[in-house]
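Hey, quick one: can you model this chain's 3D structure?
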Amino acid sequence: MTGFLAPPLPETANSAISLLVAFVLGTLIGAERQYRQHAAGLRTNVLVALGAAAFVDLRMRLEGARGAVGTVAYVISGVGFLGAGVIMKEGMNVRGLNTAATLWCSAAVGAFAGADLPVQAVLVTAAVLAGNTLLRPLVNAINRAPIRGSAIEATYEVQVTVAAGSTGRARDLLVERLEAASYPVGGIEVVERGEDSVEVVATLVATAVEAAELDAVAAALEREPGITHATWSVQTAD
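Sure thing. Here's the predicted structure for all 238 residues.
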C-alpha cells in the first residue's frame, strides 16, 4: 500500500516528464489554434493533451504497457465526444470539423507522452502543425481554382411545378426528358405546394452532370403545357 501511495522517485520523475512533454506539445498545437481564434484554443488543447497523458501514464504505472492499451482506446472514444461539442451545423454548412480533428490529435500527442514515447509525440505534433499551417495555402489555392460542375460529386434534383391534377403527366415528361438527355432517374417524389399546385421532384442517378444540359432540360420542360415552373438543384456530397 505504501508503494502505491508514494511511488519510487524514478516513477514519479517519469510521470512528471510525460506530463511536461504533453504540456509543451499541447501548448504548441493550442497556440496555433488560439492565434487563429478557434473555439478550442490554447487551454483546451493543453488540457486534452495533459488528460490523455495522465490517464495513459496512470495505467502504465498500475498495469504496465499492456494495460495502457485499453486506456488509449477509452481516450480515443472520449475525445471523440468532446470533439463533437465543437462541431456546429448552420443550414448546409458545418463548422468546427478541423478544430475537432485537432483536439483528437492533441489527445494522440498526450497518449504518446503518457506511454513514454516522447519522440513519437514530437513527430505527431510536427505533423499536426504542418497540417494546420503549411497546408493552408494549398487549401486556399484549391478553393479558388475554377472547376466544372461535372467534376463535383453531388446529388442532383430536377423539379417541376404543375397543377394538382397534372401530376401523372408531369412525372412522365420529367422522366422522358431526363432519360433523353442520358440522365436516368433514381427516384420521383411529389410535394404539395398549396391547394392547387404540386412539385414533382426527380433525383438523378448521376453524381456529376453538365449544368448546361440540365438548364436545357428545365427550359424544355417549362415550355410544356401545364408546367408553370421547372428548375434543378444540387447538393454536394459530404
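One thing worth noting: Helices lie at 2-5, 9-35, 42-84, 97-114, 118-133, 136-144, 167-180, 211-222.
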